Structure formats: structure tokens, C-alpha cells
Amino acid sequence: MSQPVDVLVVGGGPVGVTTALLMARRGLSVRVLERAREIYDLPRAIVMDDEIQRVFQGVALIDELREITTPGRGAEFVSVDGHRHVGIELPLDAAWPLAHHPIVTYHQPQLEAWLRASAVAAGVDLRLGVEVGEVSQDAEGVSVGLVDRDVDESAEPEIERARWLVACDGASSGVRKQLGIPFVDQGFDQDWLVVDALLTRDVPDLPVLVQQVCDPARPTTIVPGHDRYRRWELQLQPGETREEMTRQERVWELLAPWLTPADAELSRAVVYRFHATVAQRMREGRVFLAGDAAHQMPPFLGQGLCSGIRDAANLAWKLPLVADGVAGDRLLDTYGQERLPHSTGVVAHAVDTGRLIDRLAGRDTDDTSIESGHGGGRPFPHLEHGVRWGDHPAVGRQLPQPSIDGELLDERLGEWFAIIVDDPATAPDDLAALAGRATTVVVPAGALDGVLPPGGAMVVRPDRYVAGVAGSGAELQRCLNELGSRIGP
Q1: Alpha-carbon radius of gyration of the chain
Q2: Do the domain assignments include residue 368?
Q3: SS3 (DSSP) at 309
């Protein structure tokens, strides 16, 4: 048996490694178990939003991340002749609410190599080439049987032991299957050809914005990727087979309106079935599901990896508080209470976008089939349950991050809870309700205009979601007491 750790993470992809990195930075001992010995050398995920960039800012890695990402210029829905139905430009020099560009692109193998190096530097034990077998748990922790792929598979499995386990082992998660947790189908299944290409010379006519081409004959998505990478996603039509559509000659035929073999090299061409599914639950005792093991969505919003890292950021402050004895087990119940509705809402948004492409292409004329799409009526989900208090519009949403005296707000907040006031007289005298894991921060009047009431206070969670907004010192104390009752042992 290896030395027990606080957390075992099954799966060494970007979500699993980020989970391990964030927990190690908060003082937990973490071991990652990954069956592959090498990083998968082809791109899969391709975009990251501002909330996820903020996660890496929180562990002092944002400057390194910017070196391997490219800011996105915007997105648009266009007809086959190039007419724009709807779109948005993203200026590179704008002041954005979270202080990061709304969308950046990356090359996943490069991102994964950087994440693994960062995790190991933070103290994560990364074990590669091991197969996870039986998972069991008891009142004290979780046991995992391992088989090293380089030794006799008939040998007795090595046993790994931890207080908790996070399953980040993908859409076909073996851990989820052992737990008997089913997926709930959200009603979207389509086959699409995904083609990644690396430009070998400049192609000026390629779109600089993400384009959803609403072509009645074949809806298509074009994504300008990091550096010289470009992606096409093309919807399969009835009668087309995976074998036919991935032949190199057929791929170049499909790319002909934009690209020739003289312009680029093909990195991959693969047919995916775009699913929309969410796990029935995300916790079973001491085991948690995260990433694709918990939810899958079509890629039209670029939110697959983002949703997985939101899972990681949510767990990464809760498990350390429970491990230190300052929070009770019921805090861990809020993981599913918060993440399951949120991820379900993001899946619904992605489905809306896919249906909007068909609708604008004239392939779906049922007006009742779409609740929103881009710019539509369904609001982007926020945290409606769990560690939150009150009904202020900011509660359950990400805290804006202005620059104050040349310093971004997060740099003042610390790594646990923060209580933000614009009048020192409103600051609480006693932080016992949050187990002393809180920092009081005074900001100039108007710095958070429209979010922080003048003379009031705001409680911000370690993951930078607003937990509560109070209009006075007395109301702040009620807020702290209620939040403390959901956190404390």
C-alpha cells in the first residue's frame, strides 16, 4: 500500500490535474492516477473563458497561462453567403468585468504539459501508466486497487488509500459506473466531423471570429485557434459514415471553400457524437464526479473544459476546510447542490446554440424548440443553492474584479473568504462564523458600484462567487451567521 493521501484524483487530463493543483496549493496531499503514460498529442478542448483564467490567477499562474493562449476576437452566426445574423466583437484592449479577456484559445497538448509541470511543482504526486480497478469506501476513506500496466496483470493489485476521491476519468468514467450513477439525457445527439489543421502559411481570407455557418446543406463551425491552429466542425448528414467522412481526400474536399493542402497540415479528422448529458448526482459518500465524468455537452459554447474546471474550483476550497476540521461534512453536500444545476444550465445553453444554428439555416422551423440561443431569454446560470445568502442580484455570480490603485482586486482578497466594505465601520468585529478563514478588505467608495451597497458589505467565497450582500453591519452579521451554519462542523 502506498502512503495514504488526502485526495486521490482518477484521471490526469486537464480537469483532473487542475483539481489536484488547486487542492495541493491549499495544503492537501494529492495523488493523480492516470492510465496513459504520455499526454494525448492531439487537440480536443480549445477555448477557455474569463472565469477559468481567474482560477489560474488565484494560484499565481496567469502570466504563464497568457504565454500559451491567444485572445479570441468574437463570434458570429452567418448565412452561407456570409450575411451576419447575430454576432459580437471582443476588443483586445477593453476593460472586462473579471479583468481577463472573455475567451482565449490554446493548444491542448501544450496546455496539459504546462498544467502537469505546475501541479508537480505544487507537490502533486503524478502517477502515470496505472489502471484503476475496484473502488471501495468506508467511514474513514476510499480504497482503490491499481494494476501497473508494465507488470504482470495477474499480480495482486496495489492498494491506494485516501480520505476522498475525485473521478475525472472522462465520459466513460469507470468510477461513475462502479458507483451506479446514471447519466440523464438532455435531448441532443448529433454526429459531427471535427477537423484540426495547422496553417503552414498565411490565409488572409479565413475568418478571425468564431463562425457558426448556418448552411442548410451542412451547418459548420469555424474556430480560429491558438497561434496557427484552426478548427472546423461539420455536421454529418443522413447516410454519411464515419469511415467516409474521415478519409483525407474527403476532408480536403469539405475544407475546399476555406483551405487547400498547400495552406495547412491536417492534425486530425475524427467524427464525434455531440451529447448533452448530466450525471444524476455528483457525490457518492467520499467520491465526487468532475468534468466529463459528470457532464457532457456539445462544443458550440466552448464550455466543456470550463465546466470541469468550475467543478475543480468548487471542491478545491471545500475539501481543505473539512480536512482541517473547520467545516462539517454537510459542506461537501453543497458541491452537487451548486454544480449540478449550474452545469445542467450550461448544457442547456450549448444545446440552444446548436439548435439555433439549425434554425437559422432553415432546418428547424419550430419556434418552440429554442428557448434562447445567443442573446436569447435564458440567463447564463449562476449559483442558486448552497453556500449563499440573500436575494441581491450579485449573489451566486462572479465578483467583478476592478483594478484599485494599480492592483487587481483579487490580489487583496486572500485565498479563503473575503468581506468587502467601503466603510471600515461596517467591518465585522468577529469572524468566528467563518471559522476565522476570512479577510476584511476595504475598497474605495464606488469601486464596486452597483454591486456593493454604499456603507454595506459583501461576502465573497474562495472561488470568487458572491456569497451574500448586506446593506448594513447588522445585516452583515445575520449573513455571516447563516453562512456559518452551512459551513461549520
Answers
A1: 23
A2: no
A3: helix
For residue 333, the surrounding DSSP H or E stretch is helix 330-360
**147-163 pLDDT per residue, tens:** 765 666 666 778 999 99
DSSP 8-state code for residue 297? -
CATH code, domain carrying 55: 3.50.50.60
pLDDT classification of 373: cutoffs 50, 70, 90: very low
Q: Which grid coordinates belong to 362? A: 432553415
Shared domain for 336 and 463, answered yes or no, is no
Q: Quick check: helix, strand or coil at residue 299? A: helix
CA distance 58 to 50: 12
Residues 6 or more apart whose CB falls under 8 angstroms from that of 116 comprise 12, 17, 39, 126
Report the relative pairing of strands 125-128 and 30-34 from DSSP bridges: parallel
For the record, the C-alpha cell of 143 comes out as 480504497
| 306-350 pLDDT, tens digit each | 999 999 999 999 999 999 999 999 999 999 999 999 999 988 888
The owner of cell 490580489 is 411
pTM of the model: 0.92
Q: Which amino acid is at 157?
A: P
User: At residue 248, does pLDDT exceed 70?
Assistant: yes
CA distance 474 to 68: 47
Cβ count within 10 A of residue 304: 23
All three cell numbers of 418, joined, read 473575503
| CA distances from residue 372 to 24, 74, 350, 447 in whole angstroms, order as listed | 40, 19, 10, 33
CATH code of the domain covering residue 468: 3.40.30.120
Q: What is the largest CA-CA distance in the chain?
A: 71
Higher local confidence (pLDDT), 180 or 436: 180
As given in the structure block, the three cell numbers for residue 456 are 454595506
Mean pLDDT across the stretch 178-190?
A: 89
The DSSP result for 105-163, as a single string, is E--HHHHHHHHHHHHHHTT-EEEESEEEEEEEE-SS-EEEEEEETTS-TTSPPEEEEEE
Number of domains in the chain: 2
Angle at 264 between CA 70 and CA 272, to 5 degrees: 75
Angle at 208 (CA atoms; ends 207, 210), nearest 5 degrees: 80
Range of the domain at 142: 5-70+102-183+278-351
DSSP-based three-state secondary structure for 335: helix
